[in-house]
Amino acid sequence: MSEYNRRRFLQHSGSMVLLSAASGMAALPRQAFAQDTVKLGLLHSLSGTIAIAEASLVDAEKLAIEEINAAGGVMGRKIEPVVEDGASENAVFAEKARKLLDRDKVAAIVGCYTSASRKALLPVLSRSKGLLYYPTYYEGQEQDARVFYPSQEATQSVIAAVEWMAREKGKTFFLVGSDYIYPRTCNKIAKPAIAHMGAKVVGEEYAPLGHTEFSSIINKIKAAKPECIYSTVVGGSNVAFYKQLRAAGLDGTRVVLLSTVVSENEIEGIGKDNAAGYYACMGYFQSLQNPANEKFVKAFKAKYGQDRVIGDPMEVAYNSVHLWKLGVEKAGSFDPDKVIAASAGLTLEAPEGTVRVHEKNHHVWKKVRVGRARPDGQFDIVWESADLIEPNPFPKL
Hints:
It comes from Achromobacter veterisilvae. By secondary structure, the protein is an alpha/beta fold.
């Protein structure tokens, strides 16, 4: 595990800056900021089992804030980040969101990683009329009026992933995931796509979040003799899962493993040797070659170190700050309701390429790719969708 993933950090903003409204000017709802700043909440797990995947998103968000501030800010105001630790606990996420919205008076929140943590925020967002940008791939089945979903929902990645495996690697599948809503919904989406390709599922197993003993599941995989393993095991569990798979001889040569949740950042924790040869399906890989990504990677490494890597959720976290900025500028206001109304159809030239906010469902049109992990922890891209894929968060299951 990298030194970064071992350290825990948390920056507290202890003071509240109050808005002084000029005579005759209506106060902006809920937001409070100094005349030259606006607060943006960054809410992620900096500790606990999900921190291995989530903590680094804050770095990408801070880079976006730094770039925006250097270019003059948002509507003339510099962004002041307010960072909070969700500690991999849903109740803590809700508590911290209340603090950010009600006490710190942030204009919006970029945050969460698991679907359970996001769902814990929904009542808080509704009550406080907040706005969340959720930068992680997820299972779909949601369209909240106060949330934007800039990463891929499951139909954009899961269907592409299993169809690619069925075309290129084999017709028998074993499905394995952590035991919560994302993996279970992904597998509901995967099964008809697998059947449509003339393939079949020969096994399906789930492990509790944070689980580290996979021998029983691996024995079931070996007994079922699949050609393909589709994995939605998340967080620190992947360190154990990948090591134990390889120790059991499932090293990606005869049996192909593809994950829709393991990016370059998770590989740093899993170990490059343990991940090499396995596949992932993502919207973004650090190895993408285009001017926007080359600029992004160069800036990130210059700020945080040449040994740091960038995974899909980190890039979407970076995009989320820029999408919020575009929405504010189009609305001409920091008011969340006005930003929400103005964001439909927004287009961003991101490091991954063009992304476009859907006109109706708060998700984004985007491309997805399949990559094969290399011994250096990066991915060789072996497939890319021809066009932007429309989000479909409510498929028939």
